[in-house]
Amino acid sequence: MSTKPSSIITASKIDELPNIPLSYSVANSQTSASQLIYTLFPEWAPERGGRGLKFVRFTDGITNTLLKCIHNPPQGISSSEVRRIEDGESVLLRAYGRDTGILIDRERECASHLLLSRFNLAPELLARFANGLLYRYVPGRVCSVQELADPAISRAVATRLGEWHGVLPTSTTPPPSPASSSSASSGEPDVTLWTVLQKWISAIPSDTDEEKARKESLQEEYEKLLTSIDEGGYGLKGLDGGVGLVMGHCDLLSGNVIIPPQEGGLSGSHDVVREVHFIDYEYSTPCERAFELANHFSEWGGFECDYSRLPTRSVRREFISTYLSSFELHRSGATAATISAGQIDDLMNEVELFRGIPGFYWGVWALIQATISQIDFDYASYANVRLAEYWAWKETFEERAVSTPREQRWSQE
Hints:
The chain is of the alpha+beta class. 43% of the residues lie in helices and 11% in strands. Helix 5 runs parallel beside helix 9 (313-332). The termini are far apart.
């Protein structure tokens, strides 16, 4: 009999989650956050004998507001005891950016978070509120872009990612064909990376002739990609190693990697890093594992898209070797896994073929953010940079040219 947690997350399970009928306000941050926390934990309020709250604002994301809400520790205790209490009695408040529901299915996000919690891959989800979520704090610090290349941290990320893909259940339904992708009569397809991308393309503004032409061009490229998967164009057919789709994080940038406290303190050598945690699951969806890996590697360049930081071929091979070992261990439940050079070669080749898809995916995303976001970030320029990655990738297959800094970096040993 299987000992794995149930993989069924029903609407009733989501409905059982406390739903606080209040909103977080950026303009009235501490007051609105306090109201949310005291609704969930009334005993923390000073008028109920609690010690009150303090807040730490995180700024690593570019779409959401993230606050660490700390139940003040009692006075007269040691600094180590303060840290222990703060870590144990803190809640993360994540408030959604304006109009991000266009990009993100919040019901599915809740379901994904609940599922991950059942497999001990996410902190406990405590409550929903009108424009966000409350969940347990994960002790540790956010990984920096530079640290993604640190061998110890890279191994830990690969190991955790292999666990995600190895244990989490997901649909293996393939992406829709171009003919059915927009057909209402065919019914709702299973959600995958590809159905999400189609939804985003449909949401791109087309008010001007220029916007309309761009949207039509991106739709055409999307359909070519689906045809390529069906028919083998660009070598994309059947790229799953017999695994099928995996439940991907799909946004594995440095800011979503948490390095837990290490023995000897957080400032110790990275060599002691044995594990990491992943946070923020709003983009989590079934996808090809080659996309997940290619997307993570692209995030080594950060929001600045510094291609000189991307992992070279030998570094990618080491990461994939560690990932496959972890994946096979967690998928089979065995105590050891032997990975062949052929398995590594196959997945390396798959990632090579998918390396342009993240640029297309996040380029489309950024085009929408450019019209809805109030955050001080140049999404329009970011969209152009990411989409250029896709066109350069396509060029390498159609003309066998390696003409951009990104493609040159990818080809290095």
